[in-house]
Design brief:
This protein is an alpha/beta fold. The protein has 16 helices and twelve strands. It has two domains: 14-205 and 333-398, Rossmann fold, CATH 3.40.50; 233-237 and 242-317, formyl-coa transferase, domain 3 (2-Layer Sandwich). Bound molecules: coenzyme A (COA). Residues 18, 20-24, 41, 43, 69-72, 93-95, 98, 121-123, 136-139, 167, 198 line the site of coenzyme A.
C-alpha cells in the first residue's frame, strides 16, 4: 500500500488483476476509483492491448499501478503467487481455464492465501463444451452467442449494442460478485472462485423479452429506433433534432393524447381511464403513432422536451458529444473532470461515479507506463534489489 493514498470506501482493499481491454480491467478500475490499491499485471512483450487506444486508456487505467511480469514462466509463477499472498481479490481474463491448465489452479492460489476471492472472466466460462470454452471472445462475440445481438437493430439487420455493452456489463458483474464474495470471505476466512462467462452476463441482462419467448413462445420483431410493442416509446424526429421519448403511465398517456389532438380517445371503451400502456397492437395505435410523429416534426426538440417534462412524460433530447461539456446540469454536478496524464498532457473525462457522500472517490494518479511500478510492487512484496535485477535479466519482469 506504500504510495496509495487513503480515501474511499475501498480504502485498504488490495486488488490484483491480469487482463486486457475492458471487461475485467474496468471492474478493477472502478475499485481503484473507490480507494482500492490496484495492481495491474501486464505481459512482458507489449503490455495490455488497451495501450494501443488513443484516449480511453487514460480513463480506464487511472489510479492503477503497473507491473510487467511473465506469470506463466516457472519463476514468474512464484512472483505471481507472492503478489496474491496479500491480495483480497484477484481478477483474470483469458480464453477459458488458462490458469488451471498452466498449473495455477484455485487450490494452488488458496494454498498461499486461503481467503482470496478469485474472479475468472472468459467468453464462455471455465467448463462446458471444450471447443467452446477455449475460444477467444470480445464484447461482440458474447453479444452474438447470448442472443443479445439478435434483439437490437432493424428487421433486416441485427446490430451491436454499442459501445462495448457486454464488456461494461461484465465489469459491473465482476465488481458486484467479487465484493459479495469478499463479504463472506471476511466473515468466514474462506475465499471464493467466481466463474464469469461474458455470454452468461448478457444472457441474464438480455432476458427481458426472452422470458416471453421461453414461456409464451412470443418473438417480437426487432424494432430499430422504436419500441417492440408500445406506442410513444423510442427515438422520434423533431424539427431540429431527435427526441428520446418513453411514454408510460395513465396520466402521461392522457396528457400526450390531448397534446397530439387525440384527447377524445381517452376515457372511452378503447382507452378507459387508467390505461397505463398504449400497445402497438391496440385500437388506433397506427393513428396515435402517426399523429405523434406529425406533432413532433413541427416542433423544436428543446420545446417538446420542456413541455413533455412538465407533463411528467419522460422525454429527452438526444444529446450529441458536442453538447455534453456545455450542459448546465453536467457542469453543476461536475460530470467531467480534468487530470494530467503521465506526460503532463491535460485529459478530460468522466468524473468518478457514483458519488459517495461520506467517502468520495479520487483520481490520485494517471495511467502508469508499462512496468512503471514493477520495482515498487516487488519491493513491497519482499523482493530484494538483487532479486529484482536478476528477474529483469532473465526476462521474467520488466521495469520502465
Ligand atoms: N504473462 C504471461 N503470459 C500472459 C500474461 C502474462 N502476464 N498475460 C497473458 N498471457 C498470455 C495468455 O495466456 C495468452 O497465451 P495463449 O494465447 O498461449 O493462451 C497470451 O498471453 C495472450 O493472451 P491474452 O492477453 O488473453 O490475449 P489474446 O489476444 O489471446 O485474447 C481476449 C484476448 C480478450 C480475446 C481473451 O483474453 C479473452 O477471450 N478473454 C476473456 C473475455 C474477455 O475478457 N474479453 C475481452 C473483453 S474487453
Amino acid at each position: 500500500m506504500a504510495n496509495v493514498p487513503k480515501f474511499g470506501n475501498l480504502n485498504g482493499l488490495k486488488v490484483v488483476y491480469s487482463a486486457v481491454e475492458i471487461a475485467a480491467p474496468v471492474a478493477a478500475q472502478m475499485m481503484a476509483e473507490w480507494g482500492a490499491d490496484v495492481t495491474w499485471i501486464e505481459n512482458t512483450y507489449n503490455g495490455d492491448s488497451m495501450r494501443d487506444t488513443t484516449y480511453v486508456k487514460e480513463l480506464e487505467r487511472r489510479n492503477q499501478r503497473s507491473i510487467s511480469l511473465n506469470i506463466f514462466s516457472e519463476e514468474g509463477k512464484e512472483v505471481f503467487l507472492k503478489l496474491i499472498e496479500e491480495a483480497d481479490i484477484f481478477i483474470e481474463s483469458s480464453k477459458g481455464p488458462v490458469y488451471a491448465n498452466r498449473g495455477l489452479t484455485d487450490e494452488v492460489l488458496w494454498e498461499r492465501n486461503k481467503s482470496l476471492v478469485i474472479v475468472h472472466v472468459s467468453g464462455f466460462g471455465q467448463y462446458g463444451v471444450p471447443e467452446r470454452v477455449n475460444r477467444a471472445a470480445y464484447d461482440q462475440t458474447a453479444q452474438a452467442y447470448s442472443g443479445y445481438l439478435s434483439q437490437n437493430g432493424t428487421q433486416e439487420q441485427p446490430m451491436i449494442a454499442a459501445p462495448y455493452t457486454g464488456d461494461y456489463l461484465t465489469a459491473l458483474m465482476v465488481v458486484g460478485s467479487s465484493l459479495a464474495a469478499l463479504y463472506n470471505a471476511q466473515k468466514t476466512g474462506k475465499g471464493e472462485s467466481i466463474d464469469i462467462a461474458m455470454y452468461e452476463v448478457l444472457l441474464r441482462m438480455g432476458a427481458y423479452y426472452m422470458m416471453d419467448y421461453l414461456n409464451g413462445g412470443i418473438i417480437y420483431p426487432r424494432a430499430g429506433a422504436r419500441h417492440q410493442n408500445l406506442c410513444g416509446i423510442g427515438v422520434y424526429k423533431c424539427k431540429d433534432g431527435f427526441l428520446s421519448l418513453c411514454l408510460y403511465g395513465a396520466k402521461q398517456n392522457k396528457a400526450l393524447l390531448e397534446r397530439i389532438g387525440l384527447g377524445y380517445l381517452w376515457g372511452t371503451e378503447e382507452y378507459p381511464e387508467g390505461t397505463s400502456a398504449l400497445w402497438l397492437d391496440g385500437p388506433k395505435a397506427e393513428l396515435i403513432e402517426q399523429k405523434l410523429e406529425e406533432y413532433l416534426l413541427e416542433r423544436p426538440v428543446a420545446e417538446v422536451e420542456e413541455d413533455f417534462s412538465n407533463l411528467k412524460i419522460a422525454a429527452n433530447k438526444v444529446m450529441t458529444f458536442e453538447e455534453l461539456p456545455e450542459e448546465p446540469h453536467f457542469k453543476a454536478r461536475e460530470a467531467f473532470i480534468e487530470w494530467e496524464n503521465i506526460e503532463g498532457k491535460k485529459i478530460v473525462g468522466p468524473n468518478i461515479f457514483p458519488k459517495f457522500k461520506n467517502n468520495p472517490g479520487q483520481v490520485w494518479r494517471p495511467m502508469p507506463t508499462l512496468g512503471m511500478d514493477t520495482e515498487a510492487i516487488l519491493n513491497e512484496a519482499g523482493f530484494t534489489k538483487e532479486q529484482i535485477e536478476e528477474l529483469v535479466e532473465k526476462g521474467i519482469i520488466k521495469k520502465s
